[in-house]
Design goal:
Elements: H1 13-20, H2 25-47, H3 59-70, H4 81-91, H5 95-115, H6 119-135, H7 142-154, H8 156-159, H9 165-172, E1 173-174, E2 177-178
Antiparallel strand pairs: 1-2
Helix pairs in contact: 2-5, 2-7, 3-5, 5-6, 6-7
């Protein structure tokens, strides 16, 4: 008597509908454009500010970081001690580099989400930035964007359906399955 030792679990219908069915791709388009616009506008503000890029690059970030460090003390800190140590020991000494990284990272995430290119990767990158802003003690729209980005990550297969991913994903494939660009041509024996 042989038992099925398969480790693959069937996907629930609601999960399949939400995250794999193109019928709901218009919902993901709206979410993607909203989140992308938030990142694009935040990045554009920074690109046009000399306190983020240019001659005074790093000064705006320095102010933000000092505010975060101020929140890492006291009886009930808003910023964890380990994260404050990371900011103090690594980010502040490299604040000009991080100023450019944040600025162009926000722009690239916004553009990628709006045009629907590499949606899952862009949403992950945005979520990573939102998590860092949250760990630095800044709430703002970060929790909402983080949650929407988590859903976009789960819906990566169809979130870019109305965008470039509709063409990029079949062409490039995934790390576990190559797309048309990486498939070997079939040889026909005569």
């Amino acid at each position: 008597m042989s038992k099925d030792l398969s480790t693959e679990l069937p996907e629930p219908r609601i999960s399949s509908l939400l995250f794999a069915d193109t019928k709901l791709s218009i919902l993901w388009l709206l979410i993607r454009i909203y989140v992308g616009w938030e990142w694009l506008s935040a990045g554009y503000e920074k690109v046009t500010s000399s306190a983020w890029v240019g001659g005074q690059a790093g000064t705006a970030l320095h102010g933000f970081l000092m505010g975060a460090l101020a929140k890492s003390g006291g009886a009930h800190p808003d910023v964890s001690g380990w994260y404050g140590g990371f900011l103090q020991g690594f980010v502040i000494p490299n604040q000009v580099f991080f100023s450019y990284l944040v600025t162009y990272g926000e722009l690239l995430v916004g553009i990628a989400l709006i045009i629907g290119a590499f949606t899952g990767i862009a949403a992950f990158s945005g979520a990573f930035m939102n998590m860092n802003y949250l760990m630095a003690g800044t709430v703002s729209t970060n929790p909402v964007l983080f949650l929407l980005e988590l859903f976009l990550i789960l819906a990566w297969r169809v979130a870019g359906w109305w965008g470039l991913d509709r063409f990029l994903l079949p062409l490039l494939g995934t790390p576990w399955q190559g797309g048309k660009l990486f498939s070997k041509p079939k040889v026909i024996n005569e």
